[in-house]
Structure formats: structure tokens, C-alpha cells
Amino acid sequence: MTPAATTPAYRRLSVEARRGQLLDAALSLFAHRSPDDVSLDDVAEAAGVSRPLVYRYFPGGKQQLYEAALHSAADLLRQCFAEPAEGPLTERLLHALDRYLAFVDGHGTGFAALLHGGSVVGTSRTSAIVDGVRRAAAEQILGHLGVPEPGAHLGMAVRTWISSVEAASLIWLDEGKRLPAAELRDWLVEQFVAQLATAATHDEQTAGVVRHAVALEAQGGMLDRFLQRIAPLLDGSDRAAPA
After folding, report:
1. Which of helix, strand or coil describes residue 35?
2. Which of 45, 97, 216, 229 is the least crowded, having the fewest Cβ atoms under 10 Å away?
3. Per residue in 137-181, pLDDT tens?
4. How many CB atoms are located within 10 Å of the residue 153 CB?
């Protein structure tokens, strides 16, 4: 006798596990397509469940699912900047940016659509979620600098750098990732060093932060290599004499 064909049993999951499965499916789709182009049917198919089941967990429909997926992505991005507060500052930033750029690389289209207002389903609530990621990143960077309450110059330098990281990431995606991720990472860390140094010339708090950070850097490390490359550019011996 030929054995009767068996139908795979429906896999029962806990409420949290099923919800996580649906969010993973949504994030996977948003990684390659704008949320505007992803339907609940697409999410159901990707998760291997029925459309009514998606509605059971997200009765608010696509908007609720979008916001939940954004929360999930935001949590992942917050974790990118979580790094033990030990060792050279540049090394900590390199590790954080490795994780950040890996997220950007893995989510592609979804990075822009989810985190930078690229969707018509964006609302004031979704904007608040994104702003929360930026604030959390700033707090973590300031934690690495050992300054929980920055003055105007230091706060501006940190927040401006975070905006630069976001903008550079979007340009990197838009231009087909022409720069290797490691090169972009190094450039962004060096940019932060230069930005802090510039702010330090105007502000004693930032100057103190820079002095402390430099003392932690390893000899021959990233900071030394950066300074060796820019020193010839700052050498005034080749400048034309003023008229």
C-alpha cells in the first residue's frame, strides 16, 4: 500500500511569537520595497499564514502593522550604538557603525521608507519614533564621551554628526554602495573627530572631551593614522604669500 499523503500540521505559536513572526515578515518585505507597495496579503503570504490572521494581530490594518514594524526597526537601530564604554572612542564608534551600516545594507529600500519619511502612511507618531532613535543615538554617543548634559557646542556637534551619518547612509544606498562599507565607516568616524576638534576651538567643554578622548587612543591607531594623512594638508609652507 502507498502511504497516505500527510498534510503538515498548523504550527501553533504563542501570541508574542506569532506577532514577532508577522513583524519579521513585514520587515523583510520593507527591506526591498516601500511600505506603500506592501499589502497585508503580501505579509500573510511571506509569513505563511492567512490574511484574517494578520488582521487578528493587527486589527488596525496596514497602518498599525507599519508602526509596529517601525518600532521593531527602531529598536534594532538603537542597539547599533550600544557599545561597552571602554577603550578608544574611535574603536567604539567603528564597532557601532559596523552594526549600523549592516542594518542599512540589509534593509535597503526599507531603511529610507521606514526611517526617513519615504511612505505616505507616515504620521506624527511614526515621525516621533524616528526622532526617538536619533535622540537615543545622541544619548549613547554622549555617554561614550562621558557628558550626559552637553553644552550648546557639544550637543550641536553630536546631533549634526548623527544627521550626517543618516544622510551619508541614504546617499550610499542611492549611489549603489560605490564605497565599500568599511571605507564609509572609517570616513564617518574621522568626520566625527574633525567635527569635535572644530567645536573644541570654540568651547572649553568640548576641548576637555577631546583631550580625554585623545588620551585613550592607542599609539599608531586610527587617530594617529588620520592625523598623519591630514598633516600635509594643513602645512602652511606651500601657501602663497598674501598679496
Report:
1. helix
2. 229
3. 999 999 999 998 999 999 999 999 999 999 999 899 889 999 999
4. 19
Separation between Cα atoms, residue 211 and residue 152, nearest integer Å = 18
Q: Which homologous superfamily does the CATH classification assign to the domain defined by 63-230?
A: Tetracycline Repressor, domain 2 (1.10.357.10)
Phi, psi of 52, deg, nearest 5 = -60, -30
For the chain, the maximum distance between any two Cα atoms, rounded to a whole number of angstroms, is: 103
- Contacts of 46 by beta carbon, 8 Å cutoff, 6+ apart: 25, 26, 28, 29
User: How long a stretch of residues is the chain?
Assistant: 243
Which amino acid is residue 107, in one-letter code? H
Instruction: Name residue 179's amino acid.
Output: L
Q: Where are the domains of the chain?
A: 63-230
CA-closest candidate to residue 203, choices 160, 148, 156, 159? 156
pLDDT digits (tens, 9 = 90+) for 71-124: 887 888 888 888 888 889 999 999 999 999 998 888 776 676 656 544 445 567
Residues 16-28: tens digit of each pLDDT: 888 888 988 888 8
Q: Which three cell numbers stand for residue 158?
A: 553630536
pLDDT at 122: 53
Q: What pTM does this model have?
A: 0.78
- Quick one: CA dihedral 78, 162, 212, 219, positive or negative? positive
Query: Can you tell me the distance from the alpha carbon of 228 to that of 226, in angstroms, rounded to the nearest whole number?
Result: 5
**What is the C-alpha to C-alpha distance for residues 13 and 185, in angstroms, rounded to an integer?**
40
Q: At what angle do helices 40-47 and 62-80 cross, to 10 degrees?
A: 60
